[in-house]
Amino acid sequence: MSELFATTRTIAAIATAVVPQQGSVGIVRVSGSQAMDIAQTLFHAPGRQVWESHRILYGYIRHPQTQQLVDEALLLLMKAPRSYTREDVVEFHCHGGIMAVQQVLQLCLESGARLAQPGEFTLRAFLSGRLDLTQAEGIADLVGARSPQAAQTALAGLQGKLAHPIRQLRANCLDILAEIEARIDFEEDLPPLDDKVIISAIENIAAEITKLLETKDKGELLRTGLKVAIVGRPNVGKSSLLNAWSRSDRAIVTDLPGTTRDVVESQLVVGGIPVQVLDTAGIRETIDQVEKIGVERSRRAASAADLVLLTIDASAGWTEGDREIYEQVQHRPLILVINKIDLVENGSSKSLEYPGNINHIVHTAAAQNQGIDDLEKSILEIVQLGKVQAADMDLAINQRQAAALTQAKISLEQVQATIDQQLPLDFWTIDLRGAIQALGEITGEEVTESVLDRIFSRFCIGK
């Protein structure tokens, strides 16, 4: 992939999702020195339409040799440097579906472009200086955002809210390095270096890095979401709970035990956090082979979940079956959901002798849509206890950025240790340069080809 990125050839790709009979518009994007020539070869604009930058032309796409009509379309022209990549860019806005955009893309390739690699348009924007790496990663996060909060956090990265403090920290490190190197080169002409001032400055930088590192868990939560498994005995109301929570009829609800034979999934958003809810088959011993497979899948879903909702029937109380399931899931973060409280006199649950170490308990009447708000509050409390803030934070770092920040912090700690050991000034600069390099890797001021490959390979083709 790096060899392709290093070339200056014009690239082309479909920039919109291709869904049979569902997309109304499909876009083919072309970027590079041949983009305008390709557009003029394929696109015929009737009348006296002006071919100039940032205009939209109406016309027809035709095969350059046979003149066969391929599509009626719009053409968007963006000349360098006023484009996403800072190269000449054209976009063919075709009819949606599969055939039109595929045929237009093929004509672009036959006219001299090559197929773009994943993320290559954004990579060219980075290489041209239009974006730094944090902004590029913000674009990927925005495309993949699964909640409004995740989208806002991605936009913050795209707007440079992460890059700015990183650059400031790196500039502060460079200032310290300049002070030290000046003493090395001009020791006789300058006053002695104040160790306490240097240590204080390094501590301040390390403290700011620590604050940024504290956003990592929140960032991961917003990007990957929270996987929640609803488990329990058959007929305790797990499917009703899913339906009430998702405000849909995703799961079949009957009075017959064992109705749910497989894991049913629903995507929700709780407090800005994407939540994947899994309604599992009732866990019990059974001779039914199909149900037995469902029970085994339920156990696997529970063991892989970030949070388990152990659901029991308030009218039945804590049973031996509930105890057996609890023993299987007690190692996971857990909420005890006491369901069907509407079937209990005065709405209070029967005396339950559930384990005393269950700290989070919610009472629901899922069939009556009661208790869902309390359930969401309890989930967010567990998230908070995990020191992950669900909202009120406008940026969050990813794993790559966290690794670089951690390395920068370690390097700064080594500088402090070097000063404490009263080693020569030359030794101070070694780890300080390491911190500067690590911070530069975050924004792309210091970056290798392998890092670029890793970052942009997770982009979709066309972006």
UniProtKB/TrEMBL annotation:
Alphabetical list of PROSITE patterns matching this protein: G_TRME
Main location: cytoplasm
UniProt-recorded Gene Ontology molecular function terms: GTP binding; GTPase activity; identical protein binding; metal ion binding
Keywords: Cytoplasm, GTP-binding, Hydrolase, Magnesium, Metal-binding, Nucleotide-binding, Potassium, tRNA processing
Binding site for K(+): 235, 254, 256, 259
HAMAP family on file: GTPase_MnmE (MF_00379)
Protein's recorded name: tRNA modification GTPase MnmE
Native species: Nostoc minutum NIES-26
